[in-house]
Amino acid sequence: MKKISLSQFVLQTIAVVVAFVAWWLLYRNLSGLAAWLTYSAAGLSRASHLSTAVEFFIYESPKVLMLLVLVVFGVGVVRTFFTPERTRRLLAGRRESVGNVLAALLGIVTPFCSCSAVPLFIGFVTAGVPLGVTFSFLVSAPMVNEVALVLLFGMFGWKVAALYLGTGLAVAIVAGYALGRLKMERYVESWVYESNGNTAASEGVVEVALSWSERVQAGVAAVREIVGRVWLYVLLGIAVGAGIHGYVPENFMVSIMGRDAWWSVPLAVLMGVPMYANAAGIIPVVQALLGKGAALGTVLAFMMAVIALSLPEAIILRQVLKPRLIATFFGVVAGGILLVGYLFNFVL
Amino acid sequence: MKKIQILGTGCAKCQKLATVADEAAKALGTPYELQKVTDLKQIMSFKVMSTPALVVDGVVKLSGRVPTVDEAKQLIG
Fold this sequence. Notes:
Chain A is mostly helical. Chain A is built from 18 helices and no strands.
């Protein structure tokens, strides 16, 4: 860990504050700016399909990208406080019900990459984290995703975003609890329990205390990595939205994916499972489906299935889980998603 | 001769770590050997919980993230 001088610290604090103020001022004035660019600068006539679409795009793209930068930065900083090792210590030896809730919540803030799902799984179960609690974490970590939340918030408002967060956590908690009740420990490959775990060495290795400066740098690095990877999908999603906004008649999808078509929810889940995309990649599709009159529950179910369950993940997990447990895992999570889909279609 | 090992099942971050470690080791100028460990059981034998991880002469120096070249230089050297 590097020591930084006081003047450096002051400079950094000022830089962060200035960045926040600039962000806020720009964000507040986006709407007027977009209207001005569309009607005055580009000279498009009001109330035409084209100008509505253009204004929507000019307003929404910077808005969503700015929200994304802010939230990814914040989450990047928060995640420096949570390492997988610390999360494991918090979860080891917990009772199931409490453990499932805690695991689902920690899934949001613990840095997680699907490529280390297997070492993490082994690390959890060998340290005494119950199997069901481990699954709650494994469901919540990819599904309750900050990029998905920002995009849902930016495009469909806070209610849809909150619904996604709440039901995503609920699916993770309930699915993990159900898997724990099923007592499937014997369907974990036996070498996992024989491997003596990985508790000893990984403690202490990565647990260096970070300075605030390093945490801010981690936030900036997260922005660079995540926003750098997803911005194109985001723009694509907004462009699709803009197209719908201006042109495509609504209710186009009502008969196939509207709330009256009861079979649309299971179909959405079935279609979603083999598909693999990150949260940002799926948003253009979600935007298109919703804009054309598909029911919210059906679309949320589709989105959850794509993000939380995938064939590549099944193949990775096959190294530590026997087929029967993988099938049960997918079945239980898919069942949870199905319930969420129906719930929204009937309640809203 | 330094023995540098990169633990990881072949995701993008693991490739990145290998590149960074290679660059850092070259800059240090010490003779070294770089090896990628992709077999899961072998990775587990180092007792790490998140990949990618950097191992120098058998000691786990870093896990779960990709360092900067400067940081990697300190870890290797």
